[in-house]
Records
---
Amino acid sequence: MPDDRDGHHHHPLPETPAALRTKAIESLLVEKGLISSDAIDYIVQKFEQDIGPMNGAKVVARAWVDPEFKRRLLENGTEAIAEMGYWGSQGAEIVVLENTPTVHNVVVCTLCSCYPWPVLGLPPTWYKSAPYRSRVVREPRAVLREFGTELPDDVEVRVWDSTAEVRYMVLPERPSGTEGMSDPELAALVTRDAMIGVTRVQAPALVR
Amino acid sequence: MDGVHDMGGMHGFGPVMREENEPVFHEPWEGHVYALGGSSNLGLFPNLDASRYALESLPPAVYLAASYYERWLLRTERRLVEQGHITEEELADRLAFYRANPEAPVPRHQDDALLERAKARFTGRPKPLHRPDGAPPHFSKGDVVRTKNIHPKGHTRLPRYARGKVGVIDRVHGSHDFPDTIAHGLGANPQGLYSVRFEAEELWGPDAEGRGCVHLDLWESYLEPAEGQNTHGEQDHARRP
């Protein structure tokens, strides 16, 4: 591995901070004309501004108010989500899992960090962390409790380990007290964590 | 490979640590490392599974000590040298330069073709995963299957915690490229991919936490028929119709 370990430390990572190591390889690739600086900026900006859980939240809100859309979403998530203009890398095939009073779904990738980018953006650090990846398949209720989600014993917990290229997104239960709310109002209630399945969507009174 | 990346079911990693209002990238370098492959003609990895295998191949202590994007950075550094895009000497010299001049900027290079290609990645619909010419799936929804007890040295997507376990086919996804071979340049070998449901008790025995199951997406090559077994892995003596 090309690195700059000085041999005096037992820490397994190179001494030079990652920010400087990134500058080193990027500057070399720029000099060789192998990389587009504008493309880097473009990709970073897409994920910082355009692609994120606000997309998935709109999908969920529509499913809550439009039963026909919800039916299509559960039957073929990829196509229903594409109807709303969302597709792309890590979203070639998206399956939507409906949470109900008796079934609670939660998504993980124990082997790496697979996640439905077009609807949720890039995953949070905890989703990619060893504690979540190791534990949620074995003790999902304990993990969800750490997120403040208590599941009654009679609720079936279904954990989805994303081991292939199929991506999973949870359709959370619509909270009570949201009758008559508009799509955008509903979408504002829907959180990233609820679409991963570690939390529920809270009723508006609790959000305020 | 039976590496530390295969974490499902392991003990000892502690509670899940969350960060309120976490930014997409914590520092600019993370975004740059993330975007590097898509901003270039480098062809770092021929497919996703090859790139995953490169991460899995980091030494275990490095894998665990590194942050997510540090792993990506280590993988990219190693790959750029392997492929001859940069040399060890160039990299060492440049690292020394930035250690001495940490505020020195990175020069920019404009390449409209690469920019257009990066943009196109966000506009076009991705190719479907199903391969119509692949081997057709042999199992059907409701079939009882057992995962093989295999320990390949190379890339695989059958986690350790789900090997030798009995489950039920819940959904047939179609015929998908096979990670174990495509990662190593041994062909895509498209074949049946299934969502397989495993009861928690089958995976974790009496230590299972409660009512529940785990679904994994598993390829035909990982599975064998297990009719006559119940989904807790015992012989099923009930008469089958």
Note: Strands of chain A lie at 94-98, 103-108, 156-161, 167-171.
---
Amino acid sequence: MTTVLFSVAGIVAVVAAVIVVVSRRIVHAALWLVVALGAVAGCFGALHAEFVALVQILVYVGAIVVLVLFALMLTKAPTNPLPGLTTARSPFAAVVATVLALILGLGVVLAFGNEKVKPVRDGSAHAVGTQVFTTWVLPFEVLSVLLLAALIGAIALSQRKKED
Amino acid sequence: MPLILPLLLAVVLFCIGVYGVLARRNAITLLMSFELMLNAVNLNLVAFDAWRLDGLATGQTLAVFVITLAAAEIGLGLAIVLLLFRTHGHVDADAARDLVEEEQESAT
């Protein structure tokens, strides 16, 4: 059952991700990114990581894609198809990506080809939250400082005056 | 569920992201491809967490941390893209060559 759910979500994710990187309409690419990220959230759910799936939907679909759409609006991205959105070196890029996929896929199959996952219900907010605030509390605090640094950095970048 | 299924999905998503980073020109589409690659990493973390079941929720916690990092990264990245648009009037990653070395300087 979880395998079927995971496969369906995975196929949706791959198709949407391919459209994200080949679409000639940049706003369409951003909207297909919603589908891809939501399908990956479905994959997390099929692996019984419900909390991660919810955070994925909240942060990625709710915040990051909205931020990307705002950036598209502020940079006056055209909504009509742009033939120049993909560079002339895209065949080379496709070859690199295919070779990388073959190498990584071969390594993964050789290393973990016979392993099985027995998903158990341990991905609730209670279980993950307990671990975050006991075992992982130091990385958690460091991460909050990093978020503050990113916030200050973004403000400093956007407040910069045009000098020369 | 075989462990190979999420791992192969992660490989495919990561390589789609690599293709996007190499082939796209607009800086915002580059950032979208980065998000795809980070998602592949998260899928690996969650899959190995479901495989190992170490009781510490290591993979899931790290996946949440990576999602937080991705939020910080996209915030800074889009700030840089907007700055590029304000100073240069375009968001073409190939045309932003202010830091490129001159031919004579690199030859000496």
Note: Residues 4-92 of chain B form a domain with the Helix Hairpins fold (CATH 1.10.287.3510).
